[in-house]
User: Fold these one by one.
Assistant:
Number 1:
Amino acid sequence: MQTKIKPAKKCYEHLGGKLGELLLENFADKNWIARKNPADKHFYITELGEKEFTKLGLDLSKIKSEEV
């Protein structure tokens, strides 16, 4: 009997593929991440996101801060 698995792809230093896309959409829908401008390519972690990611046990200190 063959077991079916769903892939979680790593692309360079980030999570890619459909799982990465679904997580991005979910975090944006929950306002855990946002864009300063809808045309921006990059997201930032919101205050709510900082609280919620920390509750999940993520160490956000491993993410380098950027100047805005």
Number 2:
Amino acid sequence: MAKAAWKRPGSPIGRKGPRKANPAYKRRARQPWTPSDVSKLKQLAKGNTPTGVMSIKLQRPVAAIRSKAQREGISLRPVNRSPYNRRTKAAKRR
């Protein structure tokens, strides 16, 4: 017979501590995106913020941030990253 959920070692049920009693970081998974959330996502993406940091600031999973950015046409690729092919067009002609 399977153990009860509160007796399993990895179960959060019955746990005590700061995350269980008063979690400061709650994920808003499956919640609708508000226009202010989308504008904050655009602002964070423009500032080259990593998706992990965006996840904490927007209180949403990383996958939700990536999928919403793709649907809205927001690029999460850092602007300041140098391209893999560093040769310029002028150098290729020579």
Number 3:
Amino acid sequence: MNSLQTIKRILRTDVLVEVPVDQMQLDDSLRESYGMDSLGFVELRVQCEEAFGIDIPDEAVAAGELSTLGDVLALVERLSGADQSPTTA
């Protein structure tokens, strides 16, 4: 499972986003498209940290680096040193 698939799984199973995984797009706003609230963002952060073995700094969250699905993917890959294409679903 690549990074994008893992993030989508986290959104569906842990954050309880109702959008089907196959309809999630990189430019989807987590707040507008998925209806996430502050608790959802905390859960996403914690689950990504656990799944990828990374630490997402408060500054990244405050700077809006978790605004879209693509933002989350880019941040996770940057922090984990992963080099996977975001075009693979």
Number 4:
Amino acid sequence: MSHTKTTGQTPRKAALASFLGSMVEYYDFFIYGSASALVFSHVFFPNAGAATGTLAALATFAVAYIARPIGSFFLGHFGDRIGRKRVLIFTLATMGGSTFLIGCLPSYSVIGVWAPILLVLCRVAQGFSAAGEQSGASSMTLEHSPEGRRGYFTSFTLSGTQAGLVVATLAFIPVAGLPTEALYSWGWRVPFWASALVVIVAMIVRRTLEEPPAFEEMKESQEVVKFPLMVFIRHYWGSFLRIVVCHLYATISTTVTVFGLGYAVEQWNISRSSMLWTIVISNIGQVVTIPLWAKLSDKVGRRPVFAVGALGCAASVFVYFWAITTSNWSLVVLASVLLGSVCYAAPNGVWPSLYAEMFDARVRYTGLAVSTQFANVPQGFLPTIAALMIGTGAFGWVPLAILLAVLCVLAAAAAFAGRETAHVPLKQLGRTPRTTAAAPAARVTTTL
């Protein structure tokens, strides 16, 4: 029985499921970041002192980045063994459940040290599930997409991510304006509880999806590998390195949203609310432009669209920091739209298909999950590096901008380091003489 055809509403449903799933995952992730900066030092670490409590709260945010690589091994393995759909339902339930529980946690004043312990456990669960969401959603949507439109449909995973950031930021703007007593008692909990509504909708959509035809064919032909990670390590280390370098462009995001926010507020007297709205506007733009760039990549190729966007980031990051030094909010918004909605959206919209197309179906979930989670590591360090590099005066930002530009140029070069895959048939993606020859020895029948 053949499963190769993808017809009807399946690609659209897969794209919608990816959009909603990513929106939930990253809404949950981002509201935690806002709460850790604004609230958690008072609620969960009240006896630590202001500075120490803030550091402790932010440390719980970082815990998720330790859990993510571990989650990538586990979720990637089972995504390639038992199916994309089952693992994606698990990631959504885990993220949604842990986020809702955070909103229910008693404060330190009620249960003492157990409050921060339970908070950290919930945060670990968030990080663990996030490790498999984008990679699984990208794999599943890619494999459901018709030939010639894989980039477009797969890009909705990243549109969902940007939508999650927008909604999370908007959710915390009114919460942060509550009276102090209301904010610390119940106000901060509302955004965590509200995520349950989108989780329910996303779960309904995701449960109605079938496994991709490519995975069903592997089960029928008994090509599901027993240890996908071993096949990945043996045959795809080159793709792993290429993804790590390509993903250096993403340092733009964390540097702008984390460091740039503080830099504009503290050194150039732009109000915090103005900068938050700048982030919202830029990301709303990305929700629109990401699928447009991805659609273009279906026509002209993944590599040129990714590279042009990365090189655009290398140039426009100078415009962004210069605009901040003018203290003119209108200029900052325009520069942010140029950097984020126009330039950054290009590689951001293309990478789900570009990276996923480097692997064949047997190891696609594992390869994408492990590669992207390790590729995300530099993002965590860049805000700290930026704070150390930044100088004083109107041109103190130049060394940082040069560093970011160099990273983006390297990312553009890495995009061209491999073959173009936009027009390669799905069955031929990631296949090499070595991996094809190795397949029979690794076959295993999947039974549940």
